[in-house]
Records
---
Amino acid sequence: MLILMHSQSTPEQIEKVKNRISALNLTPHVIPGQLRCAIGITGNKGAISPDIFKSLPGVVQCIPVTKPYKLISREVRQEDTVIDVNGAKIGGRDLTIIAGPCAVENEQQIMTIAEQLSGMGVKFLRGGAFKPRTSPYSFQGLGEAGLKLLAKARDSFGMRLVSEVIDVETLPLVAEYVDVIQIGARNMYNYSLLKNVGQLTKPVLLKRGLSATLEEFLMAAEYIVSHGNFNVILCERGIRTFSDFSRNTLDMNVVPTVKQISHLPIIVDPSHASGDRKTVIPLARGAVAVGADGVIIEVHPDPENAVSDGPQSLYPMQFQQLLGQLNELGRFRLSE
Ligand code: PEP
Ligand code: MN
C-alpha cells in the first residue's frame, strides 16, 4: 500500500500516518518525491484496508501496490530517481560513464588510467580492490592498499570512485573510501550484505546475479531500499544461458522493462557480459540506444598484461573513440 500525502501536508500529519502504520506492526517508508510526499507500507501479509488511513488529515489517496517489489516500483514513485554523486548525476537525463580497470594493480597503473580517463571527461573511476575470483589462486585484489591508491587517483584527478565490496566485514572500510559501493553479481543474493548497505546513505551499484530472474534482481534492490537507502543503481551485466560463445548473455531486454516498472536508474556492463573487447564496443552502443542510464566499462592502460579481465578490457584509445559515439547516442536522451 502506498499513501499519497497532500503536497502541502505538514510534518505532523506525516508523523501521524507513520505512527498509525507502526501501531499496526507494519513499517512506514517515507519516499522522497519532488511534488509530494508518499509513504510506503511494508510488512503486511495480506491486503491492508485503505479505510484505516483515508480519514487521517493530509492523506489524499491510498493505492494498493500489486507488485512484490514495492518501494522501487513506478507505482510508488513516478519520477525517475536521480542520484547525485558529488555533483555528477546518475539517472534522469544524464548519461553516466564509469570506466577503469577490473582491478587496481599498482600506483602507476591506476594513476595512468585515471589521468587518461579524466582527460576524456569521465567522472567515475572504477577499480576493484577486493576481487571475488572464481579461483582461490587468482589475484584477490590489493585490499585497503588498493582503496588508498583509488583515493589518490580520485583526489588527483577530481573523479568519483566505484569499487566493489565483497563482504559485511570489509563494508565499513570500503564505504569510507568509495563514492559508489558496488555489489557484484556473485553477491546479489547476499541478503545480509544488502541489508547492511541499505543502512548507509552511500549510493549502491547493484549488479544482476549470474542466474537471477528480473524479479529476483528487483527484489535484491528492494532489500537495500527497504532498509532506508534509496540510492540504488541497477546494473545488467549479462546472465548465464546455454549460449556459450560469449562470457555471458547480455539481457538488453531488461533495460526498457526496468524503466517501465521501476524508478531506479539502470546501467549496463558490456565488459563482463561479453568477455571480449571486440564485442564490448557494439554492446555498449546498444545499451545506450535502448535507454540505459549509463555504462560501466573496463579500460586498462596495458590490457595484455592486466592481472584480471585483460581480454575484455579496452585500450584507452579504443575507449576514447567509443566515448564519442556514446555521447552522440546519449544526446537522444535529451529529446526523448
Ligand atoms: C567487476 O565489475 O569487476 C565484476 C567482478 O563484475 P561482476 O560482479 O559483474 O562479475
Ligand atoms: Mn572484471
Note: Residues 3 and 133 are 44 Å apart (CA to CA).
---
Amino acid sequence: MADKLIIFDTTLRDGEQSPGASMTRDEKLRIARQLERLRVDVIEAGFAASSNGDFEAVQAIANAIKDSTICSLSRANDRDISRAAEALKGANNARIHTFIATSALHMEKKLRMSPEQVLEQARLSVRFARNLVADVEFSPEDGYRSDVDFLCRVIEAVIAEGATTINVPDTVGYAVPELYGNFIKTLRERVPNSDKAIWSVHCHNDLGMAVANSLAGVKIGGARQVECTINGLGERAGNCSLEEIVMAVRTRKDYFNLEMNIDPVHIVAASRMVSQTTGFVVQPNKAVVGANAFAHASGIHQDGMLKARETYEIMRAEDVGWSSNKMVLGKLSGRNAFKQRLQDLGIQMESEADTNAAFARFKELADGKSEIFDEDILALVSDESVTHEKEQYGFVSLSQHSETGERPQATVVFTVDGREVRGESDGNGPVDASLKAIETHVKSGAEMVLYSVNAISGSTESQGEVTVRLQNSGRVVNGVGADPDIVVASAKAYLSALSKLQSKADRVAAQG
Ligand code: KIV
Ligand code: ZN
C-alpha cells in the first residue's frame, strides 16, 4: 500500500512573513476555509505569541476549522508555547510547532547560546509542549547548515521527550536536491529513535530549488510531510509551492507512489484568493496556477492538442480548478447562476447577507461591464463592502477632474473608524491627486514603495486591480483594491494599506 504524504500549509505563517503580505484575522480565516476545502492536513495558522492580532487569528481559525489540524508556531520557551496552546484550545486537532536554531552560526551570533544550552532548551520546550497537546512538531532552525552530529543529538533528545514530527528546515534555501535528500536520509539512519516520529521537509526557494529539494527529501530521505505555501509565498524568494508539490506527486504517482488527502480542484481558487488578499501577483508562466500554465499558443502545439490533448498536456486544467467551459456571467444573470458560479469557484460566503451583498455588487459591476469573468467574481468577494470587515479606513466615494494641460483635482470621501470625512487635493495625475486628498486627513507619513495596476480580465472593460505597498517605521504592508475605475481602485488599495499599517503597529517582529 502507498504511504501517505502529509501536506502542511504555512501560507498563514511563513507566507505571511514576506514583506507586505500581512493579513487581517478575517482574511486569514477566509484563506483557512479555502485550505480546509483543499483538504490540507495541517494548517499553520500563525505565531500566536508574536502579537495579539496573530493570537486572535490562530484562535479564530482553531475555532472554525474542523477537518484540518491547526498549528501555531512558537519559539522554544514556555511563554510562547503557553500562548500557542491557549490560542489552539478550540481546535479539534491542535499542534504546537516549536523551534530553535541549531547551526553554529545562528547559535553563536543570533542566540548567543552554547550548543549544550540549545540542546537543553529544545528538550525542555518539547517536554513542556507535550504536557499541553499530544501533537508536537520540532524544527531545528537552519537545520540543513547544522553540524550533523549535534543535530542528531538534538533530534534524538526531542523525540525522546515526545516530539511527534521532526521538521528539517533549509531556512536560507542553500540546499541542492541530492544533498538535501541524503541529509534527511542520514539523519533518519543515525538517530536511534527516528522511527518514533514523522519526518518533514521545509525548504526555502532562494536558489529556485525549494520544490525540487522537498521532493528529494521525500524520495531519497523518506520524509512524509512537506511544508509549503500557496503560490510559494514566503520571505525573500518564498517557500516550496503547494500546488507544484501536490501536482508533481499526483502526476508522477508512478515514481513517488504516495497518497495525499488534497482535493486539487480547489487549487486555482486558493491561488487567486492568496494573491488577491496579499497583493502578490502570480507570474503568468508559474507552473499550475499561472494564467499561461495551460495555454498553447504555437500552431504545432494547438494542432497536437486538438488531435489528442495528451500530446502536450500532462495534467488536466480542470483538475486543478481552471474551468474548462468557462461560463461568463452578465447583467441578465440571475442570483442562482451567480451562486452556482461561487460554488464552482469554491467560494463559500459566511452568511446569506454576505451572498446578498456580493450579488448586489455583482449587479452593480455588470451594469457597466458586459461580461463578468471568474477573476471579477473573486475580486468582488474580497471587497470590503461584501466582507463587512471593519477596517479603520473605508472608501465611500470619489470624484475627480482632469483635462489636458490642467492640474487634476480630486475629492475623496472616506470613513475613519466609521466617521465620514472628505479630503481634497490636486496632484500630478488623478491617482496622485486622490491619494493626496486622503493624506490631507490621515497624514500617515508612509512611504509608497510599490504601486501596480493589473487588468483583472485583460480588456479595457476589465476591473483594474491595484496593489499599493506602504512602508512606515520599519513596517511594510500591501493594500489591494479592485474597481472598473482605476482611480477608485487606487483609493481603495491605499485606504486598505493604511488600515493594515495601523493594525500592524502593535506586532512584534517574528523570529524564524
Ligand atoms: O525556515 C525556517 O527555518 C522556519 C522554521 C521556523 C520552521 O520557518
Ligand atoms: Zn521557513
Note: The radius of gyration is 24 Å.
